[in-house]
Amino acid sequence: MTTISLITGASRGLGRNTALSIARRGGDVVITYQRRADAAEALVAEIRALGRQAVALRLDVADVAGFAAFAEQLRAALRQHWARATFDHLVNNAGHGDHALIADTTEAQFDGLVNVHFKGVFFLTQALLPLLADGGRIVNLSSGLTRVSFPGYGAYAAVKGAVEVLTVYLAKELGARGIAVNTVAPGAIETDFGGGAVRDNAEVNQLFAGMTALGRAGVPDDIGPMVASLLSADNRWVNAQRIEVSGGQAI
After folding, report:
1. At residue 28, does pLDDT exceed 80?
2. Which helix (H) or strand (E) holds 179?
3. What are the residue numbers of the active site?
4. Predicted TM-score (pTM) of this structure
5. Which of 8, 16, 136 is nearest to 74 (CA)?
6. How far apart are CA 102 and CA 122, in angstroms?
7. Total Cβ atoms within 10 A of residue 189
8. Which fold is adopted by the domain 4-190+220-245?
9. What is the pLDDT of residues 213-248, one digit of tens each?
10. Distance CA 229, CA 130 (A)
11. Residue 42 pLDDT > 90
12. Residue ranges of the domains in the chain?
């Protein structure tokens, strides 16, 4: 049976690459977006051109109050497009960066990071558990910055660390349903994250390249295929793990 994967924040960056990687492996996808409906629909068209089914739904991962309504939208989409009541994979990818030293971090910045990267992940997963098939998979995106420090990302790394702990508890509590839960922690990747600093600033790019054993910064194609592989039956016995995908950054 064809798998259905839900990827949050998939209209751009790593989420977009993950959705395409899953489709190229023969899976169908539900993607979420917050503002870029045009980019989301373009991705849906690209996935359908690969011969796979895709649907785009709007979701603000910081709006916990909207999760019940989103779950109902997802339920309707599953019924309409797949004649199914469940989906197979949840990839909690949506997020943003907010660069500030701890001494300069505002409460608004802190709350924004917590709401998107931790509270949103916690309660969205909770809201979607009734729709997630037994034997399914959850992948939570973290960061290489939970292992090594880089000035200005203290709050961001802290909430990603919370997600890594949550992953282990989810794996334990959902094990009876055969659901495996893992964390993927990318290193520095050339996307629009953090204003596109790694992608667009040659000095920053070379800084991270020099910190990485394989001698370059990462690109989305280094991450999306890995997540798609982790969701496959080939990795069915991988559970409760933090898997860093950084090319050997800061080792």
Report:
1. yes
2. none
3. 156
4. 0.95
5. 8
6. 24
7. 24
8. Rossmann fold (3.40.50)
9. 999 998 999 999 999 999 999 999 999 999 999 999
10. 24
11. yes
12. 4-190+220-245
